Amino acid sequence: MTTVTAIRRTRPKPKAQHKLPAGPVLPLGKQLAHTDKKVRDAAFANVTEFLSNGGITKLTAPIEDAHGMIAAEGEEPSERDVRRGQLPPVEMRRLWKGLFYCFWMSDKPLVQQRLATDLSSVVLEIDPKSTHDEDPLARDMAALDFIQGFWEAIIREWIGIDRFRMDKYYMLLRRWINASFRLLARSEWNDQVVNRYNTIMADPVNGPLAWSNPRTPVSLAWHLADIWVEELDKVLRQESTPAPVPTLLHPFTQLLTRTPNAQSPPRLLSSIYTPILAASIPDSNPLLAQHSAKRRKTTATDADPREKVAGILKSHASTSEERLGRDLLGALMREAGRSDEEGVRDVNRRKVYAFVRDWGGADEEDSEEEEDEDEDDDDDE
């Protein structure tokens, strides 16, 4: 007689699923870079909601790692990060990798323009909420962390952008610079906020205006120089609080005195400083009689150089337009006068001195000649 032994079958235990917390959460990177536009739009909407509703201080959602795997739990922000309302660096890098490829996947021109505008507008919507009472600048500093993450992603991914996508990323940069200036204006050009922004832009590793990092593309700095004054002027036309224009140009001043690229100094001087000086220093200035200048010839065909920078000039109306020009020339002289040990290259220093002379300023060589003349006069007496 055969005995049939019953085989007991047990159902496999279901795999542990990660429960997403109620409230705003960060989407996965693969959702932001999905081929389906609806999925990308939903993921981007979640990013906006997360950043604008205090989600930074509630970060517990699982995040996709660099290999596409999902971590068991989101990395908890440190006590300092929570207090500042700062997204931890690891999550910031993952978030921006997803956002970068979210923009990469947008192909139609209207979709690209809309996404570039929406993405840059997030800067002004970031709100860590719970940190307001402890730090009145927490909102601006959290936005600057987001800006820093953007530039780190741009520097990291720039080499992979093909020529068919380059124009749309240039458009994104223009929108981003404009939003950054609006953020600084919202803080009423607070010194801490402006200095932190300048530090981000000139960061030696991940800043777009770094001069010592060979990974930083020269074309990126050139494009920023082409749009910097124009976008700053757009913002200042709508603002009543005077802006520290020489300070806002300081990252470019540092770059042009230190860059090893021979073509960068004249490109930066003509794009950044010439338009403002042409409008702020009047033709009747007696200093310009002796230096009527090859530089000024570049603006002779312009219908009205003042119109191009009307917002910048308005911002300095409380002092004087000519004072703005003198301040810019002084800032150039101070930076060019720094020592070689501070990174200033002698060939760049001479280019700055020549530029300052052309615009009626006194460079170091002129000052030395004047001192020699004074000594000769004293000897004659």
Q: Quick recap of the structure?
A:
The chain has 381 residues and is mainly alpha-helical. Helix content is 58%, strand content 0%. It contains 18 helices and no strands.
Describe the structure.
- This protein is mainly alpha-helical and 381 residues long.
- It has helices at 29-32, 37-52, 79-84, 89-104, 109-125, 138-157, 166-186, 191-201, 218-236, 245-248, 250-258, 264-280, 294-297, 305-308, 310-315, 321-336, 346-358, 364-380.
- The protein is globular, with a radius of gyration of 27 Å.
The count of DSSP E runs of length 2 or more, i.e. the number of strands, is 0
Computed over alpha carbons, the radius of gyration is 27 Å
Shape: globular
Number of DSSP helical runs:
18
| Low-confidence parts | 15-23, 58-85, 289-295, 367-375
The succession of helices and strands, N to C, reads HHHHHHHHHHHHHHHHHH
Beta content comes to under 5%
The class by helix and strand makeup works out as mainly alpha
End-to-end separation in angstroms reads 138 Å
Mean pLDDT rating: 79
User: Helical amount among residues, as a percent range?
Assistant: 55-70%
InterPro entries: RRP1 (IPR010301)
Main location: nucleus
Subcellular location: Nucleus
Pfam families: Nop52
